[in-house]
Amino acid sequence: MTAVPQVTKSPPFAARPAEPIDPVYRQIRDLVYKVSGIYQAEDKLYLLSDGCTRRIKQLQLRSPREYWDHLVAHPSRDGELRQLLNEITIGETCLFRSQPQLDALRKVILPELVADKARQITKRLRIWSAGCSTGEEPYTLAMNMIEESQALLKDWKVEIIATDLNDRSLETAKAGIYGDYALRCTPELYKRKYFLPPKDKKLEVRPEVRGLISFSRLNLQDDSRMLFMKGMDLIFCCNVLIYFDGVSKSRVVDHFFGNLTFGGYFFLGVSESLLNLNDKFHLVHFPGAIGYWKPSLSSGKL
Amino acid sequence: MINASIAATIRERVDTIETTPSIPIVFLPLLDLLNLPSDMVNLDQIVKLVSYDNTIAAQCLRVANSPLFGMSKAPDSIKAAVISLGIRRVQTILLTCCMGKAFPTKNWAIDPIVFWRHSLGCAMVCRKFSESLATGDADKAYMAGLLHDLGFMVNCMVFSAEFAVAAKNAAEQQIPFEEAERASMGFAHPDTGRALAERWRLPNDIVDVIAHHHAPEESETAQPLVALVHLSDLLCRMRNLGYGYYERHKVDLLSDPAWATLASHYRRLDGVDLVRFTFEMDEALEGIYQLVNTIFGKSAAAV
């Protein structure tokens, strides 16, 4: 060991900003994750605390701590948790909500699916947007598929099935007219290419985009209809499962597994997880995105 | 495996690295200390070592005070930091700070900041992973994560032309670095990293990690640690802590043989919620970015 002479000088210190968030919100966050698979990251904790604050006011409680007790020990705790989930998931969604998911789709998954299915006679791809709300997700998918239609998906037929339980959301979805807020993540190029010229500051999706999508009403809890949704290559179900309890959630996920073709993929919202709801899916990581894979027959990993 | 003549070339070029003037004086003594079991290192030795270089000492305190290292309040002296964090952890902090200064970053084929983000991110993930498995030596895991890609630095310094081609191919074809290196150079960073690690007489298990983190099954002495680093490395590359380009592949950690290796050593692995682990990692990203700017930003940008 080399001898090292000692130098004494007073070192500078870095100050660390105080964090005002009540630690009880991290407990609530963990609880929410445990029951719903939704994870509020540290920088999104304010969304959780805002939601809790509204519930605290409504219930006339005095503190977050008291609300925590209410969530874990009160006779109506299950109902309250549901209320809280409703508060924190009021989904203001937008087109192009998760670019990493789209990158995974176009750069990794599509090439894989196309290679997998190359030997089949009908070159067809079926995508299901389950719980499509006001249509942002299926339109985003449609535009991205059109982008690939001259290259990877040349000669392929792409079908997008968009379903939701809510009639009013579906009407909005079919209209395909969006304002600035819904378009805040949409690249300029796509705005010019896939929307009609602006009217009243709003943009309407071009008919050829809408043409790829069929909208219909579907209750994910309707077992008999769920059985008919066969042959899906991709299923997107973002921020929907939160509205179900554990049993119905795992039933829906089982359906999804059955609805997918072998080698197909299932995606959840960005901060959601399957949380061991289903052990048949393989958890797969793509750069910046998480997906669930139904192993192909040839992979030998079923 | 690489052949004997390539191995000889690598050793020859690695020999020239030792003459690099920028290696901090405390660096080599620190490496010696790291080879000793922690009960043979005393507090004063490590305080002396940290205090020797004033800029490094200041950096160590800043790092110790970062949320990622878990000190609840700013340490007011190096001694206080060592007492509160423990000798092992301070060694890893000192190592982190030294690494940033040990290598000139002129004309690197990869952005040094991106490289350090990956290394430090991987170190953090290894530590956290190791903690959740209760392996008993989370600081060792940290050190393994920090050093696993040592070979990239070797490549940048003594194989710069060849490596620049590999780096370009990797980014253009969006394939893993190792694949691109083997295709165009005939060897890869695990080989060059191992040569330097052996020359520096790093602990055997760390040498094993550096040499085998892309093929953990080839490790002879430290399989669980190598498997842990392998998985952490993959996870980092999938979560914005890679090498700054899109890697066009998917990662199925649970089906990776390394997962089974780890599971056979640590029963707790069954209980690890990988998705949550991923979310928590995303959460730590910002902290890692800041830390890298604190430690490596200046030295990396200065050259």
Provide a compact summary of the structure.
By secondary structure, chain A is α/β, with parallel strands linked by helices.
| Major sheet of chain A | 7 strands, mixed
The 3D shape of chain B can be described as: globular
Low-confidence stretches of chain A: 1-18
Mean pLDDT of chain A: 88
The CATH fourth-level homologous superfamily of the largest domain in chain A? Vaccinia Virus protein VP39
What do the pLDDT scores of chain B average to? Answer: 88
Into how many domains do the coordinates of chain A divide?
2
Q: How many β-strands of chain B, per DSSP?
A: 0
Task: Outline the structure in words.
- The complex is a heterodimer of chains A (302) and B (303).
- In chain A, 40% of the residues lie in helices and 16% in strands.
- Chain A is α/β, with parallel strands linked by helices.
- Chain B is mainly alpha-helical and 303 residues long.
- Chain B is 67% helix and 0% strand.
- In chain B, 51% of the residues are buried.
- The C terminus of chain B is likely disordered.
- The chains are: A alpha/beta (302), B mainly alpha (303).
Layout of helices and strands:
The complex is a heterodimer of chains A (302) and B (303).
Chain A: H1 24-36, H2 45-59, H3 64-73, H4 77-88, H5 99-117, E1 124-130, H6 136-148, E2 157-164, H7 167-175, E3 177-178, H8 188-194, E4 203-204, H9 207-210, E5 213-217, H10 223-226, E6 232-237, H11 246-259, E7 260-268, E8 282-286, E9 289-293
Helix pairs in contact in A: 1-3, 2-4, 3-4
Chain B: H1 4-15, H2 27-35, H3 43-52, H4 54-64, H5 78-85, H6 87-102, H7 112-133, H8 138-147, H9 150-158, H10 160-173, H11 177-185, H12 189-199, H13 204-212, H14 223-238, H15 257-265, H16 274-302
Helix pairs in contact in B: 1-12, 2-6, 3-5, 4-6, 5-6, 6-8, 6-16, 7-8, 7-14, 7-16, 8-13, 9-10, 9-12, 10-11, 12-13, 13-14, 14-15
